Amino acid sequence: MSAYNRVVKLTVISDVICPNCNIGQHELIGAISYCQDTLHLPLTFEIEFLPFRLIPTRLLPDDNAPKVSKDEFFTSTVGKEPWANMQASIMKWAQEKNIPIAFKGLVSQSTRAHRLSRKAYQIGGQNKQLPFLCAVFRAYLEENKDVADLDVLSDLAEQTGVMSKKEALDFLHSDELLEEVNTMCEKVRSKVTGVPMTIIDGKWCVQGGQSSDVFIQIFKKLADTGVSAAPSPFAAPVVALTA
């Protein structure tokens, strides 16, 4: 890292079962890669993903809930037409990016995946958390796997180098990080209207699954302000999530 690089802290609030969050993550990572590899901006990025539960546990409990298909669940909760419109919008993006997103398989509650994501971050920061989350998104949205299933999650943890399958199963059978994840989800839900939300340097936010071009323009502005603290290049501050 250059001594003159500005470190940009990105805090992304998202849910692993949220298609728009998957879009947002693809676009954000694409923008970061372009800014570093093509534009060579003097920026270094630190990314942390925080949990959000898209589906409240009153609608889909964490444990021992009857399994239901995505189509049946979302048709009954949001309505047939809104569900069809959402699928069409996501599929348009997926086809443009050549990503085989599908809406088959079972709907999953995301608490267990969030716990493993937080553990991955504790173990190795973004170098462990980001590959794990990418694998969870791919398993749920492309491979139609149940990412609340212990075997699925423990396999993903091992495949992405977070921990061994046995260690992951032991972790998931424990209560470690359960209270932390539940508290984070409740706090965020009380202050955030939708996800994904990307918070930049703890001060400004980008709402929704924006295109990589939006992030590239933001990162260019940040590079222009230099290393030292500077006036915001954005319109408004983000609400405090730690209060």
Automatic annotation (TrEMBL):
Pfam families: DSBA. Residues 11-215 form the DSBA-like thioredoxin domain. GO terms for molecular function: oxidoreductase activity. InterPro entries: DSBA-like_thioredoxin_dom, Thioredoxin-like_sf. This is Thioredoxin-like protein. The lineage of its organism: Eukaryota, Fungi, Dikarya, Basidiomycota, Agaricomycotina.
